[in-house]
Amino acid sequence: MRLSGITCLILVQLFVSAVSAETPRPDMVIFLSDDHTWRDSSVYGSPDIKTPNMNRLAAQGMTFNNAFVASPSCAPSRAALLTGLYPANNGAEPNHSRPRVEIKKLPAYLQELGYEVVSFGKVGHYKQTPEYGFDIARHYRYHEDIAIPKAIEWLKQRDSDRPLCLFVGTNWPHVPWPEEIGDIDPARLQVPPHHVDTPVTREWRAKYMAAIQTMDRELGQVYDVARKKLGENVFFLHTSDHGAQWPFGKWNLYDEGIRTPLIVSWPGKIKPGVRTDAMASWIDILPTLIDVAGGTPLDSIDGRSLLPVLKGETTKHREVIFTTHSGDGDNNVYPMRAARTLDGWKYIRNLHPEFRFTSHVTNARAKNGYWDSWVQKAITHPQARQKVRRYLERPDEELYQVNTDPYEQQNRVNEPEQAERLRMLRQQVDDWLAETGDQKNVYGRPQRIAAQEKPNVIMVFIDDMGWSDLSCFKGAAVKTNNIDRLADEGIRFTNFYVNSPICSPSRVALTTGQYPQRWRINSYLAQRKKNRERGLAQWLDPKAPVLARELKHAGYATGHFGKWHMGGQRDVGEAPLITRYGFDRSLTNFEGLGPRVLPLKDAYDGKPPQKHDLGSANLGHGPIRWEDRSVVTAAFVKDALNFIDQAEATGQPFYLNLWPDDVHSPFFPPEVMRDATDGSKRALYYAVLKAMDQQLGALFDRIRNDEQLKNNTLILIASDNGPETGAGLANPLRGAKTWLYEGGVRSPLIVWGPSLINPKAAGTTNNTSVLSALDLNRSLYSLTGTELPQGVQLDGEDLADTLLGKEKQSRQAPLFWRRPPDRPGTREEPNPDLAARAGKWKFYMNYDQTGIQLYDLEQDVSETRNQATQHPDLVKRLQQAVNEWNSGLPADAGDPNWRPKKKPAKTGKAKAAN
Q1: Across 114-142, average pLDDT
Q2: In sequence order, which residues have a C-beta less than 8 Å from that of residue 435 and are 6 or more positions away?
Q3: Which pTM value belongs to this model?
Q4: DSSP states of 735-781 as a string?
Q5: Domain 456-809 is classified in which CATH homologous superfamily?
Q6: What are phi and psi of 221, to 5 degrees?
Q7: Are 36 and 215 a contacting pair, CB within 8 Å?
Q8: Residues forming a β-bridge with 459
Q9: Would strands 654-659 and 456-462 be described as parallel, antiparallel, or unpaired?
Q10: For a designed S-S bond to 326, which of 94, 131, 444, 564 qualifies (C-beta 3.0 to 4.6 A apart)?
Q11: pLDDT of residue 685
């Protein structure tokens, strides 16, 4: 017999009414805080962080001294709470993951017992909250701080006889911590002994304390309203999902990560003001609530009811607490498992000690401003360095006696007297892993600990410097002493090419190892409209392969200091930050976003200096400081030197881009040098070149004067394209910046590394090897022992042995170029549309197959004798190769067949496409 929908509804209502009549169900309120380290409250002994409402709740109920979460990151911790299952059993292992759909969740258990189960705020992991099946789920988005007043308002207005289980989740003290700290005095705060005590640490600790105060006020407000609305005997539970976003806290299996406050009040059932040493896990909360609600204890889940402990029927609960952590996206890829015993022993198994421990603490510096101060102090203070290294590098196993070593500083895993204890704990963890079916998966892409012998790399990419401007490349206008010294000790290459005659695409090629046309960047990036009109992207797609990103994953510290010009210029303010491309730190000019140093143009003519930022100051996205244009390279060098110091402090090899833009117009040398010129464009250019060389000297001296750095650092110096017409020189080459002729794309290249290059090649010039920026990129993967990006075909070739002077090989495949779409040349000197170099030959043609030119560069480096008619077969072969190459790439506005994409009809606020 089938029952109608109305009949079913009546029966359910009768069942609920019957249950309510037979067994009064207590109302329950669970108040969750977010990222609150257990000891950072007066209830748990903090000397300076006062939590009066936690104290008030503790005075009315039971405080657990040994409560633990199942995992120290938000999503898996909350999934364990709401399923009663360990992460491996519910499927929510890394942060942001979800428990399996088919698993029964906490609301369903209580709804079967007649409860209305309601959620306000962060209860599940933000937007996952409604997926758990709450009758009501509201205000669960990131720091939706109206959740608490809305929960209070809802509770005051509620009119229902159904028993209530109300979850209220505050986002405090989750970052971002508040800027306003009230009367908190950072100087008087106690910094935990395992933290690095700096003024910045104290400032951020004060912010964290202010966030805790906010959480505690909200707790008191909810507690008061709950008692008033639901009665003095309401069941009230307060706890936090894991420790705070400090080193050794969140994402860690140390007690600061997994140990949590747990306070429960239930007048008439729980004695007031008592504490228990019983060990509890967050997986025990679900069965506890079922038990409190009058339900039957469950055998199908991992959790066990705490009600006997709460009622004082027993003082023990668990003998061992097991915890797990799998990671948090690519920010934190560090799987580990742990066991914590009743007598205070903690065993941690780091499944991949070859991984570097990173997290939002180390990666999201804007939200955790204290970390840089730790690393900075580590440069000169051994104790600070030890703490920083300890956070970043972990052994395969750790063993602590937490009762006597509460901050888990003394790893006792190698003590012979602990061998039997270690064996037992290992076995317990092994058994637990087997029971839960833990696959020990790695989620995300880890950063590895680099081997000590990995070479450091400094790439100096100078803006608009001509092939013959450096005095070590026969330039006669000025002496570039610091660069010359590296050339004298290294190797000069005279057949080195960049892959575009203009800045942005040239930088894309060096950065990605691919032709820049692949990424629709074939001229300098400018205003949004102008980029679109020329068929260009607005910025380099972050999906592009980037050498720095791969090096970072291989354990390198990565920094970019200088001109970027691959997005974030003019009016394009939504471009990715430089750090999106794998750089740990950056400082750029007006051609990028993030921290910037912007130039002041001072002609020393009595007039105030003029700002030269091309709109960058209006874009936001990073702190900005203004410097005289004549010393901007010095500013880049200063930050680069600090970056090197920090890399040494953290024990990492480093990859450093130093990309000065001094010799790009406008030219503003220091006053003394300006006074020595005749004021002409060329004279000012060379004065700037000399000043730049002097400012680079501080970087080169830092490396040369440190024996360890000198013996393990490779410095490469090149120019991004030829010189601006009328400024630098590329003699005897034809053409200049923007032209595909040799003067536009041939660049000086110097490779220096005393202990890395072939000693016999030091001080020599390689006039035979043909190579390009694409090949530099590819060769640096080999030189650093770094795996190539997966699923990507780089256009460069591995010429590492040539760069080190061990061979004199050339690139095997031809090199191809396409002119910038907005640079057709002049009437007197048209710019060919397409070009190739194959062996000794340089070939040119236009899109319409006219303008064929062929030059023998070994005999005619100035490209004065067109030999196309003498070599028709070669011309045909190169013409076909160029056409095939060009046709396989996105076209731009230089191609007569290119048509702009139609802008979509406006349906609201326009969003720029990249």
Answers
A1: 97
A2: none
A3: 0.91
A4: --TT-SSHHHHEEEEEEE-TTTS-GGGTTEEE-S--EEHHHHHHHHH
A5: Alkaline Phosphatase, subunit A (3.40.720.10)
A6: -65, -45
A7: yes
A8: 657, 716
A9: parallel
A10: 94
A11: 97
| The two three-digit tokens of residue 657, written as one number | 């881009």
Q: Determine the 3-state secondary structure of 500 from DSSP.
A: coil
Beta pairing partners, 713? 456
pLDDT in tens, 571-630: 999 999 999 999 999 999 999 999 999 999 999 899 999 999 999 999 999 999 999 999
d(C-alpha 587, C-alpha 566), whole Å: 14
Half-sphere exposure of 143 (CA within 13 A, CB side): 10
**Of all helices (H) and strands (E), which one includes residue 853?**
strand 853-856
What phi and psi values does residue 137 have, to the nearest 5 degrees?
A: -140, 115
Mean pLDDT, residues 197-221 taken together: 98
CA angle 269, 309, 73 (to 5 degrees): 110
The pLDDT of residue 366: 56
Q: Where is 707: in which H helix or E strand?
A: helix 707-710
DSSP 8-state class, residue 614: T
DSSP 8-class letter at 708: H
pLDDT bucket at 11, cuts 50 / 70 / 90: very low
Please state whether beta strands 456-462 and 397-401 pair in parallel, antiparallel, or not at all (unpaired).
Answer: unpaired
pLDDT beyond 70 at 560: yes
Q: Smallest Cα–Cα separation from 832: which of 501, 378, 419, 375? A: 501
Asked if residues 177 and 40 have their Cβ atoms less than 8 Å apart, the reply is no
**Under DSSP, is residue 137 helix (H, G, I), strand (E, B) or coil?**
strand
Run of H or E including 496: strand 491-497
- The three-state secondary structure class of 105 is coil
Asked if residue 164 lies in contact with residue 118, where contact means CB atoms within 8 angstroms, the answer is yes
Residue-wise pLDDT tens digits, 713-759: 999 999 999 999 999 999 999 999 999 999 999 999 999 999 999 99
Q: What is the token pair recorded at 256? A: 């600061």
Question: For residue 522, which of 198, 833, 908, 139 has the smallest C-alpha distance?
Answer: 833
Amino acid at 51: T
**Among 663, 662, 749, CA closest to 714:** 749
Cis preceding linkage at 666, omega within 30: yes
Mean pLDDT value across the chain: 95
pLDDT band of residue 495 (cuts 50, 70, 90) is: very high
Distances (CA, A) of 821 to 500, 513, 538, 890: 12, 22, 15, 12
Determine the Cα–Cα distance for residues 498 and 863; give it in Å rounded to an integer.
Answer: 18
For residues 683-708, b (16+ Cβ closer than 10 Å) or e, as one string?
A: bbbbbbbbbbbbbbbebbebbbeeee
Q: Where in the sequence of the chain do the CATH 3.40.720.10 domains occur?
A: 28-436, 456-809
**pLDDT grade for 13, boundaries at 50, 70 and 90:** low
Written as one letter, the residue type at 797 is E
Q: For position 913, what pLDDT does the model report?
A: 37
Q: How far is CA 486 from the centre of its chain?
A: 34
Q: pLDDT, tens digit, for every residue of 668-722?
A: 999 999 999 999 999 999 999 999 999 999 999 999 999 999 999 999 999 999 9
Any residues with CB less than 8 A from the CB of 2 and at least 6 apart, and which? none
Give pLDDT, residue 901. 80
Q: How confident is the model at residue 364 (pLDDT cuts 50, 70, 90)?
A: confident
Shortest CA distance to 237 belongs to which of 305, 166, 297? 166
Question: Taking the CB of residue 897, how many other CB atoms lie within 10 A of it?
Answer: 7
